[in-house]
Amino acid sequence: MARPREFDEGTVLDAAMQCFWTGGFEATSTRDLAERMRMTPASIYNAFGDKRALFRRALDHYIAQTLHKRIARVEGCPSPAAAITQFLNDVVERSLDDPQNRGCLLVNSAVEASHDAEMREALAGELEQYEAFFRRILAAAQAAGEATTAVSAEDGARQLLATVLGIRVLCRVRPDRDLLAGAANAALTLLGLPPLPANGTLSE
Fold first, then answer.
1. Is the per-residue pLDDT at 1 higher than 70?
2. How far apart are CA 21 and CA 36, in angstroms?
3. Mean pLDDT in residue range 13-25
4. Dihedral of CA 197/86/24/107: which sign?
5. Which residue has the higher pLDDT, 141 or 110?
6. What is the pLDDT of residues 141-183, one digit of tens each?
7. 134 CA to centre of own chain
8. Reported pTM
9. Contact 132/153 with Cβ under 8 angstroms?
């Protein structure tokens, strides 16, 4: 009979996520993970496989806890235009609300994986889902007369995705509200959407 796991999976995945988020995939050692997860290297291997497999699980955990929750929250907004603005505002505020300036684990990993074809392909799939969300909600804003139709939903979604990725990279070296909000507002103005609130508010 297989022995039951003696750890809470959500807790140890959160610990692994924090470890990779702070150090990156390459620089994070198995020893770092073992200390943060409070597990032996052998236990980590038995439960999750090698470091790459654990990273994928930790990244999935991060995406579910951050991006997917944020998308679900704003998609319930009665105004799709306001939802897009709220989403970008949350990106700016959460970028500024991190004293370690870690940015986004998904974006950091995409930059780091430039030499890793398998990892690059997996991350590209996640970014495509991100783009699909923007395309879907921007099309809804255009249909409601809340956004310009001078830019197609496809191109607008690409602009929003590029803006978010840029903000998440910029915040790591220049966590300046005017800089990040200015980048967001430029994209919103281009698409005929309302600007960020003047002082910024962070949604729960």
1. no
2. 12
3. 95
4. negative
5. 141
6. 999 999 999 999 999 999 999 999 999 999 999 999 999 999 9
7. 13
8. 0.88
9. no
CB 163, CB 120: distance < 8 Å: no
d(CA 145, CA 140): 9
Residue 80 exposed, middle or buried by CB count within 10 Å (0-12, 13-18, 19+) = buried
Cα 18 to Cα 40, 76, 134, 150, 166: the distances in Å are: 17, 29, 27, 42, 22
Q: Answer whether 139's CB lies under 8 Å from 153's CB.
A: yes
Q: 2 falls in which pLDDT band (50, 70, 90)?
A: very low
Distance between CA 58 and CA 133 in Å, rounded? Answer: 22
- Burial pattern 20-46, b for ≥16 Cβ within 10 A else e, equals bbeebbeebeeeebbebbebeeebbee
Q: Which residue has the tokens 């949350």?
A: 90
- Which structural domains are found in the chain, ordered by start? 1-68 (1.10.10.60), 76-196 (1.10.357.10)
Task: Kindly tell me if the per-residue pLDDT of 132 is higher than 50.
Answer: yes
